Q: What sequence folds into this?
């Protein structure tokens, strides 16, 4: 019987194709299917906030420059990692990350909780020339970030696309995206108050690159780096987080 | 969709395993089926033929 | 090349290039405020350039029916040259970025396009997709025709696949320099390039089906199974992993449909299976044809090759989650990934063992013939790196190896030792056959290439093993007072000598690829020279009758 069956499968190329697709995809499907319902198992984090337009633009620069290739954003449940980088990462913390930036390599240290660890001035100096602040560093310089003005006119479209993939940006956020990006980096302007109104009081509103007169790519990237690990407090509240992680 | 996370996990844990076992048995049976020996032997040696032109189209 | 196409095939080519040119123009216009515009210009230039080339041969006489009595190998020939070209580009880029990790101030300009983060994907995509992909496409057309004893169904679609695929590679590589990336590892190209690749891939798949439908051998030879699994599964993976919403049609940027843990799982389901079906399955297809052919001996066990085929096809799909041990991914998925990764060792070693057992009794050939030795070493490295892979998928081992250079060492044991070696071996076997010569231009240079490649691989892999394990251990070492013994920077300093050694290993491997490219090009020029000086081909100079009716 199997002889007859497989001979037939083989002779008929289409049948063979279906066999390969079936065999290969069922494995993947069975494993992935439960993940589409994973929101049932992801921790609750009512205080979870969204990236502001400026932070999102910074995140896109982080992606553009390939930072993810050398820096992970995923602290594993291992004691030494928790002690070195902070509480281990929870699934909920990257709930709004399209795409996730967990990374796979630590040529540089993990950045999941780098937000607030260093001052803006340090971050800017480090990005301009890492060896100014860490002499042994092998990270490239990113001088052009301070020179380039950030493109903010299309941030509303970015937020709308984010909403299309499931991030709960409100219409007001989308409509004001450009102003909010400007306001977040220009604390003395009229647009600054709208940012904390829409994204919460805890939002960092300041001239990240030290120059409030213009919004640069440096502003955006530093704003993003300073929020890493601080979208929610969930991980810091986990009782088990600080204690010895499993295994 | 009424299928919850627990159900899907249960399916992948039980039927996934069954699928694996049934599948391996099927492949083994096919590979060792005596009737297939000739076809395999032919395929095995056919690529060594020196002839480097397509066979004549039948029609 | 153009003179071998029929008039209607030439017209089809021009039509497709016109369509592509319009797309390029539209991208350039819509994306004038965005990097998308730059990509549009590249597409436009590419299609206009090719259209000129097609036009240059447009009025040449049409080929006669006698072409149908031989296999159609022109796309394979071009594909081999492109593969060697990409090998040199991709590997040179690899050596350069490796050097940047050892000496970060080497970057000569403080410009975005010249920075490590943008050049690195040019290396990975250049070698995987540029070199590996072209080699797979070229050899698959060759193997498919030989094992089916049938000619390719038409002469246009194989060109469409080869040229279209290279357009994808060019758009991808130039996009990285402009800062266009999805950040999904090994799936960096953005939405428009992804859509284009789907179209190319569908045509590729149809070529396979149409040729198999015409085959004169009742049984589909096992090498084709591997090539087909490569084509099919890569299509499934590519489509699912790249689902995304573009910001707009005038933006290159898109946002992945998945987020967080779901996105991580999808990405590594893709990433690991790209290793399985792009870098393993397709190249096993190569091995199952060119190794027996070159050794002049049939494969040791055909049954074993079938069992390992289904084993690989089935088991790999479950293994991706071993990239996410100890992360926020649910534990049961991690365990599943680990278990299947360990089981994978069985079909993997069955393939490696099958290849080596085929050579049993032909060891004198392996000793004398560097081409066959390339393939043998490839099988050995395949066995080694699959063992290492299963080992590293075990959770406690992974806790040490993950995030370190050990992973890089493992990947290169597979990529240099297995993928590149089997490809070079197959190309050295294939080039003399295709260009109808006794041997390569210089068998001695093949020998030189072999030793450069082997030495380069060993230096590279050993330096990364060392640095990776040292790194992993330093990160988890505690001193007597119970605090971490080393800062991150301490571990970074310890890497420096290994990063230099790694660059040197890569340089050796690159030198080998340059020697190989020279040898291939030289063989081709010699063959052309010989056929030009030999008697003129007895082709009638009168246009075939079908030229008249081809105006529809």
A:
């Amino acid at each position: 019987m199997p002889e007859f069956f497989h001979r037939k499968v083989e002779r008929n190329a289409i049948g063979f194709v279906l066999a390969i697709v079936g065999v290969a995809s069922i494995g993947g499907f069975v494993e992935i299917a439960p993940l589409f319902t994973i929101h049932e198992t992801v921790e609750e984090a009512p205080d979870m906030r969204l990236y502001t337009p400026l932070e999102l633009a910074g995140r896109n620069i982080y992606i553009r420059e390939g930072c993810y290739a050398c820096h992970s954003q995923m602290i594993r449940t291992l004691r030494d990692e928790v002690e070195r980088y902070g509480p281990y990462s929870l699934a909920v913390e990257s709930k709004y990350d399209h795409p996730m930036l967990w990374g796979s390599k630590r040529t540089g240290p993990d950045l999941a909780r780098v937000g607030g660890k260093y001052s803006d001035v340090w971050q800017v100096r480090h990005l301009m020339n890492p060896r100014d602040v860490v002499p042994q560093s092998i990270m490239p310089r990113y001088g052009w970030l301070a020179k380039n003005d950030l493109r903010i006119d299309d941030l509303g479209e970015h937020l709308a696309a984010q909403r299309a993939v499931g991030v709960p940006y409100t219409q007001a956020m989308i409509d004001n995206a450009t102003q909010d990006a400007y306001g977040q980096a220009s604390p003395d302007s009229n647009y600054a108050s709208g940012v904390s109104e829409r994204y919460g009081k805890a939002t960092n509103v300041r001239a990240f690159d030290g120059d409030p007169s213009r919004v640069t790519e440096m502003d955006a990237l530093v704003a993003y780096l300073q929020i890493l690990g601080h979208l929610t407090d969930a991980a810091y509240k986990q009782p088990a987080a600080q204690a010895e992680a499993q295994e | 969709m009424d299928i919850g996370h627990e159900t899907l996990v249960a399916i992948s844990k039980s039927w996934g395993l069954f699928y694996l076992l049934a599948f391996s048995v099927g492949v083994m049976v096919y590979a060792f089926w005596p009737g297939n020996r000739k076809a395999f032997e032919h395929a095995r040696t056919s690529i060594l033929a020196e002839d480097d032109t397509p066979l004549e189209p039948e029609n | 090349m153009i003179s071998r196409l029929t008039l209607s095939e030439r017209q089809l080519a021009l039509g497709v290039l016109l369509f592509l040119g319009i797309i390029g123009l539209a991208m350039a216009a819509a994306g004038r405020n965005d990097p998308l515009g730059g990509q549009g210009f590249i597409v436009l230039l590419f299609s206009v350039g090719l259209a000129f080339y097609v036009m240059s041969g447009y009025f040449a006489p049409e080929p006669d029916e006698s072409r149908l009595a031989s296999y159609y190998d022109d796309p394979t020939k071009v594909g081999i040259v492109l593969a060697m070209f990409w090998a040199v580009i991709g590997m040179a880029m690899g050596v350069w970025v490796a050097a940047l990790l050892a000496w970060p101030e080497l970057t000569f300009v403080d410009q975005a396009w010249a920075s490590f983060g943008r050049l690195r994907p040019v290396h990975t995509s250049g070698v995987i997709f540029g070199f590996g992909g072209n080699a797979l496409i070229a050899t698959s057309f060759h193997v498919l025709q030989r094992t089916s004893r049938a000619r390719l169904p038409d002469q246009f679609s194989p060109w469409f696949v080869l040229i279209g695929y290279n357009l994808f590679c060019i758009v991808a590589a130039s996009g990285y320099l402009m800062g266009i990336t999805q950040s999904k590892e090994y799936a960096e190209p953005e939405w428009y390039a992804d859509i284009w690749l789907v179209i190319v891939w569908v045509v590729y798949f149809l070529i396979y089906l149409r040729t198999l439908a015409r085959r004169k051998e009742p049984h589909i030879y096992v090498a084709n199974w591997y090539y087909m699994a490569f084509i099919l599964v890569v299509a499934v993976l590519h489509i699912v992993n790249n689902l995304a919403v573009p910001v707009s049609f005038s933006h290159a940027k898109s946002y992945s449909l998945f987020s967080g843990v779901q996105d991580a799982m999808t990405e590594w389901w893709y990433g690991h299976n790209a290793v399985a079906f792009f870098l393993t399955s397709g190249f096993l297809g190569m091995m199952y044809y060119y190794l027996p052919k070159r050794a002049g001996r049939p494969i040791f066990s055909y049954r074993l090759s079938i069992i390992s085929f289904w084993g690989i096809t089935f088991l790999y799909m479950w293994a991706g989650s071993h990239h996410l041990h100890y992360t926020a991914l649910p534990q049961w998925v991690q365990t599943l990934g680990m278990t299947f990764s360990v089981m994978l060792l069985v079909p993997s070693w069955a393939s490696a063992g099958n290849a080596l057992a085929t050579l049993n009794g032909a060891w004198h050939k392996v000793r004398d013939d560097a081409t066959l030795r390339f393939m043998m070493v490839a099988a050995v490295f395949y066995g080694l790196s699959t063992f290492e892979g299963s080992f590293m998928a075990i959770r406690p081992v992974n806790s040490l190896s993950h995030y370190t250079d050990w992973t890089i060492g493992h990947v290169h044991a597979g990529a240099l030792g297995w993928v590149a070696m089997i490809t070079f071996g197959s190309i050295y076997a294939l080039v003399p056959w295709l260009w109808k010569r006794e041997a390569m231009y210089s068998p001695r240079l093949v020998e030189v290439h072999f030793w450069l490649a082997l030495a380069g691989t060993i230096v590279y892999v050993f330096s990364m093993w060392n640095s990776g394990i040292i790194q992993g251990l330093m990160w988890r070492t505690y001193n007597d007072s119970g605090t971490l013994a080393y800062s991150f920077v301490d571990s970074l300093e310890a890497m420096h000598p290994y990063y230099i050694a790694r660059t040197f290993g890569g340089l050796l491997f690159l030198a080998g690829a340059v020697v190989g490219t020279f040898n291939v090009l030289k063989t081709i020029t010699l063959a052309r020279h010989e056929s030009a000086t030999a008697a003129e081909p007895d082709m009638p100079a009168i246009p075939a009758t079908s030229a008249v009716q081809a105006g529809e």
In short: The CA atoms of residues 49 and 56 of chain B lie 16 Å apart. DSSP finds two helices and no strands in chain B.
